[in-house]
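Section 5.1 Outputs to date
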Amino acid sequence: MARYGDRFKARAIARLLPPESAPLEQLSAELGITSSTLERWRSEALATGAPRTQWSSAARFDALLATSVMSEEERSAWCRSKGIFPSDLEEWKGAARTALEAPDALGESSDSAAQRRRIRELERDLRRKEKALAETAALLVLSKKAEAIFRGDEGE
């Protein structure tokens, strides 16, 4: 019987519940979990009545897109229907802007250049060691063959 971590289970349940409401069969195939297990997890989550507090990144982005053209009253009504606060939307918008402005997102980080340089050095070292290992293996095979040949001459 497979055991799944609490975080994994919570993310799977979050994808089954609104706002994402992923189809059971699709999520089952994607995660490699039987649909009966996912259905049981969903019913347990609904039975406990625990509010869904985790929104996936994709769901947050969809919520920001959906509410961006709404008036303040419409946005408040939408938030009430989804069980979130308008301040959550503002927080998500700030987080999205921060993520987009981060230098790593644009590939301008000096850390990434240092990491690429380190990767190149490690790959070069790995190639050198692979060549040395291949040479050592070839020498070992040759020495065994030579030993077998010379042993064969001694017996005659």
